[in-house]
Structures are given as C-alpha cells and as structure tokens.
C-alpha cells in the first residue's frame, strides 16, 4: 500500500442516509436543529412522522429551528411565515399572495432502529433499503443505552479509527482493557456492496473487563462497517476450544458463556472539520441485566472519550502539517478499501450530475 496525502478536501457520499438524531429526541412541540455535510436542517414530528426541512427561512434567512411546531407545519418566529412539511410557504402574515418560489428544501427522512435518518442526495433516489441495519431500543433481545459525542475533527478520521480496531490494544488499555493480541491477529475481511464485514477469533484469552475468570476463553467479534459510516458490532466469549470446534467460523450465539454485547455507532459529518458520533451499547438479555448495561456504558463512554482525544489531536497535527502524508501499514487494508468505495460512489455521483447538467 502506497503512502497517501490527507491534505485534500474530504469526500463524503451524498446519495445515502445519515443519522441526524436519536429518534426519541425529536419532539412534536419543539423543532430540533441539526447539521449534516454543512447543511443546516430542522427536524420535528407530526402524528408520529418525522419532517426535515432546510433550516433557513426564505425571508431573511432566520433559523426555522427557533420556530414553533404547528402540527405538520412550522412557523418561523421571526416574521410568522408558515411552512408545510414539503417546505412550501403556506402563509405570510399581512400578505395574501405567496410567491411560487417561496419554499425551502425538504429532505427525505425515516425513523428506523431508533435513529432519525436523513437522505442528503437526490430525493428521487432515496431508497429505504439502503438504510444500514442496526439494533434499536425496541429489539427485545438487547438492553441498550445511548449517547453521542461532538468532535472537532473530520468524520473520515473517525471512520478510519473504526475500520481498524487494532488500536483498541493501545488507546483502550485502561477502559476496555483489551488484549494486546488484538493488534497481532488481523480480522477476516469480506467486501460487501456498500461496506466491509469483519470477523475475528482470539483464542485462549483470560477474558476481558466484563468477565474475568480462571478459565481461558475464546473471544469472537464481528461487525459490519457500512456507507456512510455505520457500525453494528456483536461480540461474545466462549469456552476455550470453541473456535477450533467451529473451524474458526461463526459460532452459535447460544453457546456463549459471557460478554455478549452489541454496539451501534454512526458517524455523521456535520460540517468542515466537525462530526457528531452517535453510539449505543449493551448486553444480550440472556447474558446481562440493567446493572451490566450501565457498567458497560460507563466503560464505553470512557473508551470513546479516549478515541476523541487521539483523533482531535490527530486533526490538529494534520491541519498544521504542510502536505501531510499517511504511511499505510498492514492493518490499513480495510481503511483503503473503504476509501476506495467512498471515492467510487462520489465519482459516480459527480458523473451523474455532469451528465444531467
């Protein structure tokens, strides 16, 4: 793998679904302000349905997120203009004539797996089937808690971090107390249509922070990392010898003896050099309870704060380095593959726009 420059504008796919918010944080009485790819968006809910509009009034560019929800409509509280769910102005106080161009962009938005997903590209291409799968709070098999972090760093750097979990042995030595062997055992990598699947066995471990026993265990971990930056991870610990017994393939989850945990993560670029990082985590009900969920989440928050320190410092170094160049190593194979996938999709979008123009 050749060295590559990082002193270029970051590329992000537009014809895809980005996580805008935890769905339960979007209310019916007060609009929410979010930003994706540098575009200000206002979210609210009417009769259970999510609505997403450009957060910019057509009159004097006031923030509609400071407005008032009126069912499926939103009133700008600067001069009282009312916008419907399609983004059209339907009322102007003191004026009967409403210009046909009095409208803002309406984004396709869907609630799924406890997240509010917004399509940032061509609305005609919005396909619900392209929403990456995740595990929501309504899944009866898991006990999850949630949070998010705001980064002063490009989303691409966070994607790179999650595409190479060998860093866990070093960055998370205090939180997850990860086995150093994680850095020595490369995962199996499978290329998916819009992402990468990782699987890894580490045998004869002493267990981790969730399960310390005198018996050795085999640890299994699998996760998908999908466009634009969605991770769904599952891991568990099994009796020593399980990996060999199943020929290092996928184990039967029912045979796990502990540390059966699910983690969902979503990386959303909010603007140039800024990112919102959503995450949820918790144990399987058959292997944990609310007390374990809370303990796990405290460790997860600590671990992801460790990532944040490293990545924000990395961003500062990149910004202050003339012509910064990254030297890839063996663990970067998945990072390179994902970058190529993003570059291909961005190139196809650009070609489509060129042909249409």
| Class based on secondary structure composition and strand pairing | alpha+beta
Instruction: Tell me the domain tally.
Output: 2
Provide the residue-averaged pLDDT. 92
Rg from alpha-carbon coordinates? 23 Å
This entry's quaternary arrangement is single chain
Overall geometric form = globular
Helix percent band: 10-25%
| Low-confidence blocks of residues | none
Give me the CATH fold name of the largest domain.
Naphthalene 1,2-dioxygenase Alpha Subunit, Chain A, domain 1
Number of strands: 19
How many helices? 5
Portion in beta strands: 35-45%
CATH class label of the largest domain: Alpha Beta
Largest sheet: 7 strands, antiparallel
**What order do the strands of the largest sheet run in, or round the barrel if closed?**
12-18-17-16-15-14-13
> What is the CATH homologous superfamily assignment of the largest domain?
Naphthalene 1,2-dioxygenase Alpha Subunit, Chain A, domain 1
Order of helices and strands: EEEEEEEEEEEEHHEEEEHEEHEH
* Cα end-to-end separation: 36 Å
**CATH architecture title of the largest domain:** Alpha-Beta Complex
């Amino acid at each position: 793998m050749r060295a590559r420059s990082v002193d270029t504008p970051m590329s992000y796919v537009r014809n895809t679904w980005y996580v805008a918010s935890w769905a339960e944080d979007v209310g019916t009485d007060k609009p929410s302000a979010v930003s994706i790819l540098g575009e200000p968006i206002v979210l609210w809910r009417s009769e259970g349905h999510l609505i997403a509009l450009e957060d910019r009034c057509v009159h004097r560019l006031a923030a509609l997120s400071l407005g008032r929800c009126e069912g499926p409509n939103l009133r700008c509280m600067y001069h009282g203009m009312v916008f419907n769910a399609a983004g059209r102005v339907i009322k102007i106080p003191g004026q009967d004539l409403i210009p046909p161009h009095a409208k803002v962009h309406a984004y396709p938005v869907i609630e799924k797996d406890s997240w509010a997903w917004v399509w940032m590209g061509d609305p005609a291409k919005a396909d619900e089937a392209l929403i990456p799968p995740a595990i929501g709070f309504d899944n009866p098999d898991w006990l999850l808690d949630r949070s998010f972090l705001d980064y002063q760093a490009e989303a691409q750097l966070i994607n790179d971090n999650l595409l190479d979990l060998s860093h866990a042995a070093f960055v998370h030595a205090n939180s997850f107390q990860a086995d150093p062997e994680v850095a020595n055992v490369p995962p199996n990598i499978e290329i998916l249509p819009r992402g990468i699947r990782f699987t890894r066995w580490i045998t004869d471990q002493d267990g981790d922070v969730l399960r310390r026993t005198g018996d050795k265990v085999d640890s299994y971990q699998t996760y998908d990392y999908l466009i634009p930056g969605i991770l769904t991870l599952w891991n568990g610990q099994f009796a020593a010898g399980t990996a060999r017994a199943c020929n290092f393939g996928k184990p039967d989850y029912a045979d796990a003896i502990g540390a059966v945990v699910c983690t969902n993560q979503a990386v959303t670029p909010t603007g140039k050099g800024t990112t919102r990082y959503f995450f949820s985590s918790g144990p399987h009900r058959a292997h944990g309870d609310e007390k374990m969920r809370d303990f796990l989440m405290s460790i997860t928050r600590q671990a992801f704060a460790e990532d944040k320190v490293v990545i924000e410092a990395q961003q500062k170094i990149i910004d202050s380095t003339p012509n910064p160049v990254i030297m890839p190593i063996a663990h970067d194979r998945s990072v390179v593959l994902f970058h190529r996938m993003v570059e291909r999709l961005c190139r196809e979008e650009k070609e489509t726009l060129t042909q249409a123009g």
